[in-house]
From TrEMBL:
PROSITE patterns: HSP90 (PS00298). Belongs to the heat shock protein 90 family. The lineage of its organism: Bacteria, Pseudomonadati, Bacteroidota, Cytophagia, Cytophagales. The keyword Oxidoreductase does not apply. It comes from Larkinella knui. This is Chaperone protein HtpG. InterPro entries: HATPase_C_sf (IPR036890), Heat_shock_protein_90_CS (IPR019805), HSP90_C (IPR037196), Hsp90_fam (IPR001404), Hsp90_N (IPR020575), Ribosomal_Su5_D2-typ_SF (IPR020568).
């Protein structure tokens, strides 16, 4: 047997206060000590596997699993591997010199032989020292894979002092034994450790055993080629990630190796009209180690409601892996994901339009938000984004413009897209539009008030107006003036009667020549005010000056028989009653009641007046 290993010394660091910094500031979440130690153990196992492949290790690999052991009585947590292990000299080099990363040296030495899938996890030199967030002293018992190596034991109590002595270990590998501090005994609970391992280690590439069970899937689907996978594989993986969710609509498999490395699978969930639901988040991994589910810089904002995983070794993280750092790769990855999603949606639209239309009520929120927020996405999405009319028929932007151009172009050559945001409340206006042969679109999602503004900004010579924003001769002003059956004096008298009948004096009365089959009185709120109200409701913000007062327009139909009846009544009281009834009917049509039944009721009532 060779000479006894025994040494005492001081860890080579640049400040005496490194451990308090690690414990209080460097790692914001203490539970990640287990992520770091298990990742290091996986790293050591992968290195041995690679060295065996290179012919530099000729022994038996055996079972390379990593084992996490809890001893509640001894108050210890042990992470064991059968990887490359360390000699006493390597302990001094890799453990005592805090900023030096063994993984970095290994990668540099073997960079020409490693492929991307065989890359090493651990390239954060301070990872091991996260142990001291929860342990009052830490032991390492390790034996190098190199022939003739002896086992060594390293111990440190969190000060700058350490001790290395000889140890007993039958085979290569490393045990890291954490003696848990009194203020961290929450980690001596089996369920607590299980939850941490499930969170950070469920897809690590080396088997992780805890409490007698392997807890991870070592080959998740994003590490495989799409050609190896079936629809069932993708659906089963989705259930594994989100067991309580409905089946996804479809998915996108990400795989790029230039100018950055990125793999993953993104799923489109069934979102419907709830814009705020973000319960299930996209998970970010670095070489199968879970990092975070806060991916707002990696994933475009409009796709944050997608589900799935992204894995990239090129995502820049701070030393604790807790936060993304500003980097050109982040922007590149963001742009790649945007392009990939747009390409997939375009492909689905072209290959199966009927199927795409069936899904559009679910995916429309993503597409519309993308059009609003991302210019590059808009350039692709304008060809497959759909709008739907009140009969449920879908159109692309170009298709709808072509369909309505002849009948809905105003005197200035602007194509007017009429829309409703409430089929029931605006039914009377919709029916009036149909009598004129006008198409009416349905925009009733939470994002449509912003989407409408964007369409008007993007589409050339196109205006969008809600179907109840004005009388139809003004909504689509074709420069044609209907003749009034009333004299100018009668129109002025009628205007005065209705102005006197207004209770709040907030409306503006006009007497207009409209078709006789229109309602006797139409109350509308101008498009500008409607949009302001809709956008204010969506934002949830209240004006510092209070709510904006409604400024309704009251259009009295000079050509309706009721107008003539009102003027011919000699009894002033009867005249006032008829004016009031006309206004009440207009208010009902404006939305106080709703649906086709209301429309029929109004028309029957008008006929009996």
């Amino acid at each position: 047997m060779s000479s006894t290993i025994q040494e005492k010394g001081q860890i080579s660091i640049h400040t005496e206060n490194i451990f308090p910094i690690i414990k209080k500031f460097l790692y914001s979440d203490h539970e990640i000590f287990l992520r770091e130690l298990v990742s290091n153990a996986v790293d050591a196992s992968q290195k041995l596997k690679k060295l065996s492949g290179f012919g530099e290790f000729n022994g038996e690999l055996g079972d390379l699993k990593v084992t996490v052991t809890l001893d509640e009585e001894a108050k210890t947590i042990t992470v064991s591997d059968r990887g490359i292990g360390m000699t006493a000299e390597e302990i001094k080099k890799y453990i005592n010199q805090i900023a030096f990363s063994g993984a970095s040296e290994f990668l540099e030495k073997y960079k020409d032989k490693l492929d991307e899938k065989g890359a090493i996890i651990g390239h954060f030199g301070l990872g091991f020292y996260s142990s001291f967030m929860v342990a009052d002293h830490v032991e390492i018992i390790t034996k190098s894979f190199r022939e003739g190596s002896e086992a060594a034991r390293w111990i440190c109590d969190g000060s700058t002092e350490f001790e290395i002595t000889e140890a007993e270990r039958a085979e290569h590998g490393t045990d890291v034994i954490l003696h848990i501090a009194a203020d961290s005994e929450e980690f001596l609970d089996k369920n607590r450790l299980q939850s941490i391992l499930d969170k950070y280690g469920r897809f690590l590439p080396i088997p992780i055993e805890f409490d007698g069970t392997v807890i991870n899937n070592t080959t998740p689907i994003w590490t495989k080629s799409p050609s190896e996978l079936t629809d069932e594989d993708y659906q089963n993986f989705y259930k594994e990630l989100y067991p309580m969710s409905e089946e996804p609509l479809f998915w996108i498999h990400l795989n790029v190796d230039y100018p950055f490395n990125l793999t993953g699978v993104l799923y489109f969930p069934r979102v419907k009209n709830d814009f705020q639901i973000r319960r299930e988040k996209i998970q970010l991994y670095s070489r199968q180690v879970f990092i975070t589910d806060e991916v707002k810089d990696i994933v475009p904002d409009f796709l944050m409601m997608l589900h799935g995983v992204i894995d990239s070794p090129d995502i820049p993280l701070n030393v604790s892996r807790s936060f993304l750092q500003a980097d050109s790769n982040v922007k590149k990855i963001n742009g790649y994901i945007t392009r990939k999603v747009a390409d997939k949606l375009g492909e689905l639209f072209r290959n199966d339009r009927a199927g795409f239309e069936q899904k559009f009520d679910d995916i429309g929120l993503f597409v519309k938000y993308g059009i609003i927020s991302d210019e590059k996405f808009y350039e692709k999405a304008k060809d497959f984004c759909l709008v739907k009319n009140v009969d449920g028929k879908y159109f692309t932007f170009d298709e709808f413009s072509a369909a309505v151009k002849e009948n809905q172009t105003d005197k200035n050559g602007t194509v007017v897209w009429l829309y409703t945001n409430d089929l029931q409340k605006q039914d009377g206006f919709i029916q009036s539009a149909r009598k004129r042969g006008y198409e009416v679109l349905l925009f009733d999602t939470v994002i449509d008030s912003h989407f409408i503004n964007q369409l008007e900004y993007k589409l050339e010579k196109t205006s969008l107006k809600r179907v109840d924003a004005d009388t139809f001769d003004k909504l689509i002003d074709k420069g044609l003036n209907n003749e009034s059956v009333l004299s100018e004096d009668d129109r002025a008298k009628l205007k005065t009667l209705f102005e006197e009948a207004l209770e709040n004096k907030t409306g503006t009365v006009s007497v207009e020549a409209m078709p006789t089959d229109e309602l006797p009185v139409i109350i509308t709120l101008p498009e500008f005010f409607r949009r302001m109200k809709d956008m204010s409701a969506l934002s949830g913000e209240r004006s510092m000056f209070g709510p904006m007062p409604d400024s309704y327009n009251i259009a009295v139909n000079a050509n309706h028989p009721l107008a003539d009846r009102i003027l011919k009544l000699s009894d002033t009281d009867e005249q006032k009653v008829l004016v009031k009834q006309s206004l009440d009917l207009a208010k009902l049509a404006q939305g106080m009641l709703s649906g086709a039944d209301l429309t029929a009721f109004i028309r029957r009532t008008v006929d009996t007046l």
